[in-house]
Design brief:
Chain B: This is NEDD8-activating enzyme E1 regulatory subunit. Chain B: Pathway: Protein modification; protein neddylation. Chain B: Keywords: Ubl conjugation pathway. Chain B: Belongs to the ubiquitin-activating E1 family. ULA1 subfamily. The complex is a heterodimer of chains A (539) and B (480). Chain A has 539 residues and is α/β, with parallel strands linked by helices. Chain A folds into three domains: 4-155 and 304-355, NAD(P)-binding Rossmann-like Domain (Rossmann fold, 3-Layer(aba) Sandwich), CATH 3.40.50.720; 160-302, Orthogonal Bundle (Arc Repressor Mutant, subunit A), CATH 1.10.10; 370-507, Structural Genomics Hypothetical 15.5 Kd Protein In mrcA-pckA Intergenic Region, Chain A (Roll). Chain A is 32% helix and 16% strand. Chain A has helices spanning 17-26, 62-73, 93-96, 109-122, 162-167, 172-187, 204-212, 241-258, 268-284, 292-300, 307-326, 330-335, 382-393, 412-419, 476-479, 488-496; strands at 4-13, 30-37, 79-82, 101-104, 125-132, 135-141, 160-161, 338-342, 351-355, 370-375, 398-401, 404-408, 433-438, 445-452, 462-463, 537-538. In chain A, helix 8 packs across helix 9 (268-284) and helix 9 (268-284) crosses helix 10. Chain A is globular. With 480 residues, chain B is α/β, with parallel strands linked by helices. Chain B is 47% helix and 10% strand. Chain B is built from 18 helices and ten strands. In chain B, helix 2 links the parallel strand 1 and strand 2. The model of chain B has no long low-confidence stretch (mean pLDDT 89). At the A-B interface, helix 1, helix 9, helix 11 and strand 9 of A face helix 1, helix 2, helix 12, helix 18 and strand 10 of B.
C-alpha cells in the first residue's frame, strides 16, 4: 500500500514520546511538507521511549535532532523543523494557514487548547493523542465536530486544607506538599502558606531550627553532627537522622547559592532537598514516609510514560489522519468522526472506539461566529476600534477582559481609562489576539481575532455570518447524561448556522445585523506559562 | 544536572523489582517482520536484559518499504543482524545475538519470553506471545506455562479495615469512643469508627446488618447521617468521608473470591506460590480471617489518633499476623515475598492457559460477541489454512476466493457459527498478506505491554487472544 500525498502539508506539534512514534509511522509516507515544532531539549529521562534520540543528544533541540535522524531513515519525507514554542512570536494564524492537518503530539492541556482554538478558527483538521502509563487515547477534531475544549475534563488535583499541610500532617503526601512549599517559598520567591520569617536565610542552622525544631511538633529535631551527602543512595535501607541532615544541609546550601529557581522534578538536587525535607518532617510528626521514588513522583506530578502505549496511540492517530486525507467527502466524514481510547480495563475491550458527542454550543473555542481584523496597533486607538466594531455589528457593546469589564457602553466612566490608549498598550504586536465576544443579553457569541499589521490605519472587519442560533441550545453539560444525542431540531438549527472553513477571511465580508454587545473575556494568547501543577490549597 | 535515570518514568509503573526482572530477562524473537520488531523495540527501550533474534532471510526491497527498523542501505544483509544492530543502538544497556538459520532449537537455553512473529508456534515450556498482522487486522495470542500473579495492581486499592469483624483490640477501641464532645472532637472522629458505630446502631434498630445494595447505600447512609445530627455541615467532613467509604464496611469477605479461584497442585513444596496459598488456607482455618495487610488509607482525624490507629492498633496486629503466617510458611519463602503476598491477598490471580495446540485443534466457542473481531479471527484461521495448503496467501482471483470460502465454511462448522458475511471474505482477500507498520505499531505496542506483565509477573495479562480490527479501531479479547 502506497502513502503518497504530494499536495498535503502537515504540522506536527510536539516531538516527544508520541512524536517519535508518529515519525516512525510516516517514515514511509510522502507529503509536500512535514513540519515539526517543539521548544524542548532532550533529557535523559526521555530516552526510555523517545527512540530517535541518543545519550549524546542531551541538551539539544528535540525537533532539530529528530529531523536530522529522520533524514537518514526517510529521505523522501520533507521534514522542516522548528525549535520554538508553537505559541511564540512568528507562529501566528498566518503560519497555521498553510497546513491541511495538524498532528498534536503534546504532553500538556494548555498547548492542546491553544492549537485547538487556532485550528478551529481556520478550519484545519486536528488529530490528538495522549498517554499515561498503560492507558492512552486518540481523538480527531474538525470544524463542526466536538472540539478539544468542548467538554473540559474535570481536574483530578486533590485539594488539601492549609492547616493540615502547615501544622497537622497525617500522611507522607502532606509532608511532600509542605516540602514543596518550603522549596518554592525559600528558593523561588513565591508566596505560599508557610510562614517564612523569623530566621536568617544565610544561616542554614537557623533555617533548619525554624522548620524542624519546635515544641508544637510531636518530635522536635535537633541539629546533630553530620557529614554532607551529595546524592541520595539509600534505596536499600532507611537512612539515619545524621544522613538525612547531611542531605538536607548540602541541598539547602547549594540551592540557596543558586538563587531564583523553579522546581524541576528532573533535577537531582531539587529532589534531594524535597526528599530530605519530607523525611525530616515525617519524623517530626512520627509519620511513615514513602520511598524516594514515590516522594519524587508526588513532588513532580510525574506522568508515567512508556514507549508501548505511545506506539499504540500514535498509530491510532495516523489512522484517523489517513481516513481524513483519503476521504474526499470531508463534510460528511467529519460528522462520522469518532474518538478511540486505548484502555487497560481488565475487561474484554482493549481499544474502545466511542461515538463522539456533539459539539458544545457554548464552547467558545469552536463556535462559528468569527470576526477578524488586522490594524496597526501603534496607530489605532481603542475607542476608534470599538466604535467601528459597534457600527459593523450595529450595537452598543461591553468589553470584558479576564472577568473584568474594561469597556462598557452603559457606564462611560469605566471606559475612560483605556479609551484613548493605542492598541499596543493592551495587546502584543507579534501575537494573535483572540478575544471572545459574547452578548450580555445572551444573543450570540463570537470570537474576535485581532492582529497587528504595520501601516494599516484603516479599520476593516471580516467575519462569518454572525448568528444568534447557537445560544438557543441548552447547555449540554447539564444534560449530558440524559441526552447525548442532539434532537433533529437542534441539528437543523446547527446546520443553519452556516459553518464555513475560513482560510482567507477577507473573502467573507458579511456584516451582521443583530444588536450585539461584546464581552472580551480572554487575554491575548501569550506563550502559555509553564504550568506548575502544585496542589491547590484552600486556606 | 538532569536526572541520570533514564528509566525513571517507567519504574513508577512496575517498581524497582519489576525493573530488575526486566533487566535480567532473556527474550527470543522468531522472525523479523514489523510487528515482532515493534514489540521488541518497546522492550529494548525500557531496558530488557538480553535479546536473541532468529531469522533465515536477507533484507529485500519490501522490508525497506514496510519496516522502519530496517535502514534502506542494508539490502542483501541478514535481517536478524540488521534489526539487532538497529535495536541495540537505541539502548546501550541491552545485549543480544542474532542467528540466520531456518530451524532454531529453542530448547537449548532458557527464555523468559518467546515472541513468535507472524507464525504459529506450539512450544509449551516458556512464556509465549504469538503475533500476526494481516492487512488491517491483527492477532495476539498469549501462553504461559505458569501464571500466578501476586501483584495484580487493581485500579482501586482495596483495604482490609476489619470494620465488620474487628479483632479484639480494635473492637475495644471502637467501643471506647463516645459520640459526645465539642465540635473539634466530633469533626475528627475517624470514619472507620463512624462506620463501626453506624453498623451497631443499624443492627440494634433493625435486628440485622445491611445486606442489599439499597440497604447499604440508602438505609445505612441515613444511620450514618443520624450520628452527626445537629452538627453544622462544615464540621461533618469525616461523616461524609464515612459515606464515601461505605463499601469498606462490607468488604471483609473479598479475599474469599481470590482464594477459591486458585487450585493447589500436588507437589506444594516445589513452588513458593503454593506454599503461600497453602499457608493462607491454614491461617484462615485457625484465625477466621486472613493475615492483616499494612495498607491503611488516609482519613480525617487528629494526627495522634491516626498514628495510634495505624501504628499501634493495626500495626501491632499486622506484625502479629505476619509472624504467625511466617511460621506457617516453614522457612520456604523469604520475608519480603511474604509481606508482598499479605498486602495482595485481596486480589490474587491465577490463569491456566489453553495451549496453542489445543486452540488449533478446537478453539473455544464464543457465544456473545458484540463486534467483528470474532469474524476476523475465523478469517485469520482460514487464510492460515489456505497458506498451509498453497504456500501463498489468497488473492482476489476467483479461484482463490472460492477455495477460501470452502475453508471458511469448514472453520465456521468447527466453532458452530452458521456463516460469516461475504464482504469480510472479500476484504481479507484484498490484503494478500500485506503487513502494515501502522497495524504493527498498535499490535506491537499491546504485545509489549503484555510481555512486561509476563516478565515482571505484575498486572493481569490477557487470556488468551486479542484481535485488533484496524478498519474500526477496535479490539476484543477472547479465550480460544
Amino acid at each position: 500500500m502506497n502513502y503518497n500525498y504530494p499536495n498535503i502539508r502537515i504540522l506536527m506539534v510536539g516531538v516527544g514520546g508520541i512524536g517519535c512514534e508518529i515519525l516512525k509511522i510516516v517514515s514511509k509516507f510522502t507529503f509536500q511538507e512535514f513540519h515539526i515544532i517543539d521548544m524542548d531539549t532532550i533529557e535523559v529521562s526521555n530516552l526510555n521511549r523517545q527512540f530517535l534520540f541518543r545519550l549524546e543528544h542531551r541538551g539539544q533541540s528535540k525537533s532539530l535532532v529528530a529531523a536530522e535522524t529522520m533524514k537518514n531513515m526517510a529521505p523522501q519525507l520533507k521534514i522542516i523543523a522548528h525549535f520554538a514554542a508553537i505559541n511564540s512570536p512568528g507562529y501566528t494564524m498566518d503560519f497555521f494557514r498553510q497546513f491541511d492537518a495538524v498532528i498534536m503530539a503534546l504532553d500538556n492541556a494548555e498547548t492542546r487548547s491553544y492549537v485547538n482554538k487556532v485550528c478551529q478558527a481556520l478550519g484545519i483538521f486536528i488529530v490528538d493523542a495522549g498517554s499515561m502509563g498503560f492507558k492512552g487515547q486518540a481523538n480527531a477534531y474538525y470544524q463542526g465536530t466536538v472540539c478539544y475544549d468542548c467538554y473540559p475534563i474535570a481536574t483530578t488535583q486533590k485539594q488539601y486544607p492549609a492547616c493540615t499541610i502547615r501544622s497537622q500532617p497525617s500522611n507522607c503526601t502532606h509532608c511532600v506538599i509542605w516540602a514543596k512549599y518550603l522549596f518554592t517559598q525559600l528558593f523561588s520567591g513565591e508566596v505560599g502558606i508557610l510562614e517564612v520569617e523569623g530566621f536568617d536565610k544565610s544561616q542554614p542552622n537557623s533555617v533548619f531550627n525554624k522548620f524542624f525544631k519546635g515544641e508544637e511538633m510531636p518530635n522536635s529535631i535537633d541539629i546533630v553532627e553530620h557529614e554532607l551527602i551529595k546524592k541520595y543512595h539509600f534505596a536499600e535501607r532507611k537512612e539515619t537522622l545524621e544522613e538525612l541532615q547531611g542531605m538536607w544541609f548540602y541541598a539547602y546550601d547549594e540551592l540557596n547559592h543558586l538563587g531564583q529557581l523553579q522546581y524541576d522534578k528532573d533535577d537531582d538536587l531539587h529532589v534531594l532537598f524535597i526528599y530530605a525535607s519530607t523525611a525530616l518532617r515525617c519524623r517530626n510528626f512520627k509519620i511513615e514516609q514513602y520511598d524516594y521514588q514515590q516522594i519524587k513522583s508526588i513532588s513532580g506530578n510525574i506522568i508515567h510514560a512508556i514507549a508501548s502505549t505511545n506506539s499504540i496511540v500514535a498509530a491510532l492517530e495516523i489512522q484517523r489522519l489517513l481516513s481524513f486525507i483519503e476521504n474526499h467527502d470531508k463534510a460528511k466524514y467529519y460528522q462520522d468522526l469518532n474518538a478511540a481510547s486505548y484502555v487497560q480495563t481488565g475487561k474484554k475491550e482493549r481499544i474502545l472506539t466511542l461515538k463522539a458527542a456533539g459539539p458544545n454550543p457554548l464552547c467558545n473555542s469552536c463556535f462559528h461566529n468569527q470576526i477578524y481584523s488586522k490594524v496597526d496597533f501603534q496607530v489605532v486607538k481603542v475607542v476608534d476600534l470599538v466604535n467601528q466594531l459597534k457600527n459593523y455589528l450595529n450595537s452598543e457593546i461591553n468589553i470584558v477582559s479576564l472577568s473584568r469589564i474594561i469597556w462598557d457602553d452603559e457606564d462611560e466612566d469605566d471606559n475612560s481609562a483605556i479609551r484613548d490608549k493605542k492598541l499596543n498598550e493592551l495587546f502584543k504586536l507579534d501575537l494573535d489576539n483572540r478575544l471572545v465576544i459574547k452578548s450580555i443579553e445572551e444573543k450570540f457569541l463570537a470570537v474576535f481575532w485581532l492582529q497587528h499589521l504595520a501601516g494599516q490605519a484603516e479599520i476593516q472587519f471580516a467575519s462569518t455570518k454572525i448568528s444568534d442560533k447557537l445560544l438557543k441550545f441548552k447547555n449540554p453539560l447539564q444534560h449530558k447524561k440524559k441526552e447525548r444525542v442532539r434532537t433533529q431540531q437542534e441539528i437543523k438549527e446547527l446546520k443553519e448556522t452556516e459553518v464555513m472553513p475560513i482560510k482567507n477571511p477577507e473573502k467573507f465580508q458579511t456584516a451582521a445585523q443583530k444588536s450585539t454587545e461584546i464581552l472580551i473575556d480572554e487575554e491575548p494568547i501569550e506563550q502559555a506559562e509553564q504550568n506548575k501543577k502544585v496542589e491547590l490549597v484552600i486556606d | 544536572m538532569s536526572s541520570n535515570d533514564k528509566y525513571d518514568r517507567q519504574v513508577r509503573i512496575w517498581g524497582p523489582h519489576g525493573q530488575t526482572k526486566l533487566q535480567n530477562a532473556r527474550v527470543l524473537l522468531l522472525g523479523c517482520d514489523p510487528v515482532g520488531v515493534e514489540t521488541l523495540k518497546n522492550l529494548v527501550l525500557p531496558g530488557i536484559g538480553y535479546v536473541v533474534i532468529v531469522d533465515s532471510k536477507v533484507v529485500t526491497e519490501s522490508d525497506i518499504e514496510n519496516n522502519f527498523f530496517i535502514p534502506h542501505d542494508t539490502i542483501g544483509q541478514s535481517r536478524a543482524k540488521v534489526v539487532l544492530e538497529y535495536l541495540l543502538e537505541m539502548n546501550q544497556d541491552v545485549k543480544g545475538e542474532w542467528h540466520q538459520v531456518e530451524n532454531f532449537d529453542v530448547k537449548e537455553q532458557h527464555y523468559d519470553l518467546i515472541i513468535a512473529n507472524e507464525q504459529r508456534f506450539s512450544e509449551t515450556k516458556f512464556n509465549l506471545i504469538e503475533l500476526q498482522t494481516y492487512g488491517l487486522v491483527g492477532r495476539m495470542r498469549l501462553y504461559s506455562p505458569k501464571c500466578h500473579i501476586i501483584e495484580t495492581k487493581p485500579m482501586n486499592q482495596k483495604y482490609d479495615l476489619r470494620i465488620f469483624n474487628p479483632f479484639q483490640e480494635l473492637k475495644e477501641y471502637f467501643d471506647s469512643i463516645e459520640f459526645e464532645g465539642d465540635v473539634d472532637y466530633l469533626s475528627h472522629i475517624p470514619y472507620i469508627v463512624i462506620l463501626y458505630k453506624a453498623l451497631q446502631k443499624y443492627h440494634k434498630e433493625k435486628g440485622k446488618y445491611p445486606s442489599t445494595f439499597s440497604e447499604k447505600h440508602k438505609d445505612f447512609k441515613q444511620v450514618i447521617l443520624s450520628l452527626c445530627e445537629g452538627l453544622e455541615y462544615q464540621y461533618t467532613g469525616n461523616f461524609y468521608e464515612a459515606i464515601d467509604n461505605i463499601d469498606q464496611a462490607f468488604n471483609s469477605e473479598n479475599w474469599k473470591n481470590s482464594l477459591e479461584s486458585i487450585e493447589i497442585e500436588q507437589d506444594v513444596n516445589e513452588d513458593q506460590y503454593f506454599v503461600l496459598i497453602s499457608a493462607l488456607r491454614q491461617f484462615v482455618q485457625i484465625h477466621g480471617a486472613p493475615p492483616l495487610g499494612k495498607a491503611f488509607p488516609d482519613m480525617k482525624c487528629f494526627t495522634q489518633t491516626y498514628v495510634h490507629l495505624k501504628n499501634t492498633l493495626y500495626g501491632t496486629k499486622v506484625e502479629k499476623d505476619f509472624q504467625a503466617f511466617q511460621a506457617l510458611c516453614q522457612n520456604k519463602v523469604d520475608d519480603e515475598t511474604i509481606r508482598l503476598f499479605i498486602e495482595n491477598i485481596q486480589d490474587l490471580k491465577s490463569i491456566t492457559y489453553r495451549t496453542i495446540q489445543q486452540e488449533l485443534q478446537q478453539p473455544n466457542e464464543v457465544e456473545d460477541y458484540d463486534n467483528d473481531c470474532y469474524i476476523w479471527y475465523i478469517l485469520l484461521r482460514s487464510v492460515n489454512e489456505f497458506y498451509n495448503t498453497n504456500n501463498r496467501w489468497p488473492t482476489q482471483e476467483k479461484g482463490d476466493t472460492q477455495q477460501l470460502q470452502e475453508i471458511v465454511d469448514k472453520q465456521c462448522r468447527l466453532v458452530n457459527v452458521d456463516s460469516i458475511p461475504e464482504t469480510h471474505v472479500i476484504e481479507i482477500c484484498r490484503y494478500e498478506g500485506a503487513k502494515l507498520h501502522m497495524i504493527a505499531s498498535v499490535l506491537g505496542g499491546m504485545a509489549s505491554q503484555e510481555a512486561v506483565k509476563l516478565i515482571t509477573n505484575q498486572f493481569v495479562p490477557i487470556n488468551n487472544t486479542l484481535i485488533y480490527n484496524g478498519l474500526k479501531s477496535e479490539a476484543s479479547i477472547f479465550e480460544f
